[in-house]
Amino acid sequence: MKTRKALNLSIVILLLTLLCVALPGQEQRDTGTGPDGPALPDKGAGGSAAAAPLMETLFVEDFEAGLAAWNTDSNWAIVHEGMNAVLQGDNRAWATLNQGENWTDYDLDVDVKIISGGAQLMLRLTGMRGRYIIGLIPGGIYLDREYPWEKIEEDLDSYSGAITTNTWHHIRVETEAQQLDVFLDHSSAPVMSYKDTWGEALWQGSVGLEVIPGTGAQARFDNIDIYGVVPPENDWVKTGGPIGGLGYDVRYGSSTQVMYVTDNYSGVNKSQDGGKTWFASNRGITGRFGASGDAVPVFTLTVDPNSANIVWAGLKDDKGLYKSTNAGQTWTEVTPPITEPQFVFRGVTIQPGNSNIVYAQGELPMNTPGLVHDRVKGRIYRTEDDGVTWKMIWEGDNLVRYVFIHPANDQLLFASLGIFDREANDSNCSLTPPFHGSGGVLKLEKQGSGWDSWFMNNGLTDMYVGTLAMHPVDPNIMLAGAGNTACSRYEQPAGVWNNTGGVFLTTDGGQSWTKTLANDVITAIEFSPNDPNMAYAGGQHKIYRSENGGVDWTAISGLTYDWGPSGAPAGFPIDFLVESGSSPGDPETIFTNNYGGGNVKSKDGGVTWLLASTGYTGALMLDVAINPQKPRIVYGAARSGIFRSADGGATWQGLSTPPAQLPTTYGVAVKPDEPNVVLASQELLGRLYRSEDGGVSWTTVFTVPNVVPGVDFHQHGLKSIEFAAPPNSHVVYAGACRGSVALDDIMNNAKKLSEGIFKSTNGGVSWVDASDANTTDKCLTSIAIHPTNPNVVYAAAPYAGVYKTINGGTSWSLMPGLPTDMRSVAIHPTNPSIVFAGALHGGVYRTVNGGVSWTPFKAGMEPNDPILALAIDPGNPDVVWAGSRATGIYRWIPAEGRWTHVNSGLSTRSIQALVISPDGQLLYAASSGEGVFRKGEIYPWHVMLPLIKR
Known about the structure:
The protein is mainly beta. The chain is 3% helix and 43% strand. The protein starts with a helix and ends in a 7-residue tail after the last strand.
């Protein structure tokens, strides 16, 4: 092993020396100047490229610069031995490195000192698969394996020897494939050597540190060096953007630098730098949902006010409540015994001074439709033994979001009932005015073994109290934000619209309420903790501020366009986190998690906003496109809007600016020979926008006919947009499709699927109908244009098949031999007689004669795999990529003769769209639930080597 590493290191040094020696003036850096940056060629490793594994230093740590690279709980601290900084852990401490999920073979060198108890080193540590554990205790070393999570197999190997307390010991662990060797104090031979079985071996993962067994244990760590195989460049890279998903809570941990944010697709994400960057922290949360079973449906999160190490998290789409005792590092399930198949946890409340008493509240779905939203009931559960046993203390006809414990009487509770996008089980929102049903503010008081409850709704005009805040000093003062998008706005008399929602204030503990802000659906409200005269309220379009405790309100954001960061309307705020200035009246920092996904931040008390989601996303992507001349520039279309990255996905910029109303962006396309020309479509309103400056500004160029805003079966958008290849790129085709309502609902209700296909012959400036009787009522989800003849086009149509035109859309023919539910299509770039088509329930089909006949082309695929995306490598057209909604990404290479999953690094396998660069070096995948993934490397530095002549 040492010989192999020494040889590889020598090669690496030689190569780096050759690459870095350049003539003066020949070194250039891509600074990204201007909207597109300089026109330098992108380099990277495409899917067909193969390279020998490289060995190099992966990580070095001496703790002199702090703990920025580590995810730690509050039991860790940097201490000094003389002038040397070391990491000390006390009691049951756990620390994990914030990188290395894809590391495979590597060596770990670390100095360890046990003061009392023991210490453990974790290797190949992954989110849910498991870890190897190297344990050090006085008198010996042991090797355990946890696989899968929470199943520990002890004493795979052990060593009895001179491990003593208060002594620094050097540990070296070498891992290669199945083999683990442990060296002690620079020994020449391993003191433990273990070879795992093929079925049980853990192949990749990061490292971690642990102090055991518990109270009184203490250990120190220093001089960590990790050296190993560089992860292959063809692994998928999670870009962490754009923003989106289904956000819910944002909370501080042990300080304002430690933060948590939840998203119903990416789970719990944690920051240790005040929200600048985030990383997933879901180890032990087993609940999953989504088409691919990868979404982590964490909804609510609460940090124990008595101990910042204790964190509670509740799920939405998979019934479950979890608890962490190490600041989110690991989680244990503590779900109440709920017999119903579904329960959505909307909040958790811990009693100050007693962490054993916890309330868990939420929503019991009824699975019956209301006017717009589903009807629900609500419950509150209580435990007195830290989650071991639970008792339901209340059930009613609307969900429970917040529970507050009266600070002077822990037997007295206040709860908010209702939310903006669920209807009460006993409501009737179709009446005029609507009947809200049960809801408002609930008061509960413990009486013996039971609880008395009564509604505190005097003065409330809206029973959907989705947000509630208690004054930090005076519990008699509370603010309630109310409103429902189905039940709060109605027309009466004709032409006069009423809105029952708004902000309500009580100063007498809920006995009476006064409306202080009217005519809005308020989804988040909060007092400033250090200056309670300052309060904030927000809805979908505006953020409001009060400077007299909620008596008067002023709109401070969203005055001319929806509130949020520039180009990224934030939507419904669902949780405010306010950090006061140093003195009353100072500008305040506010974090807001949003129902549309993404965490945003204001540093001036809510007036302006910035993106604050770097490193995580739950974005439900709908399309992706690249600049073919500079493939590091990528556009993402998502439920959360239209976004652009100029650095391969490392950072994202919102492009939803007036007049472009793109909060839900359906499709996006880039003109191949004029890449600053971009087309983007809105999902529900049928609008198509065109930009000539890379998305900085937009012009409305088309609206799909027969769209009726707000009527489910009549909301359409342009799902597929395709430019022809140069020199015919002035020709563009776009296929319409239904928006949010599922297509099978349309079929079941005998409604037409959509409005067919449209065409432009001037680069998208103007449009005409390009449908015939066969396609005019169809939904078109994918379009492929002949590489040299733009009159020849294929279009995939759900519930119909694949259509082809040979006359530019004058007439269309249904291709024979295919399933009816087709979703994707792609043409071979150099042999257009070869066409591939993806089915919703049947994998891939291929024709080699221009559609005359089709044959199944799915060897190696999962049965009935839903293929929503296809991409052919322009640099090597024999390589084909396919994106499945359920199982990830496949690659076809003729030498293999079958489809092979290429999912390494792809943490969400539900794929909606694929796009590949003209040289085949960069491939982007749009996922449903975790944003954009990239395959291939982005190199910011470009070195021009001197020309050597013989």
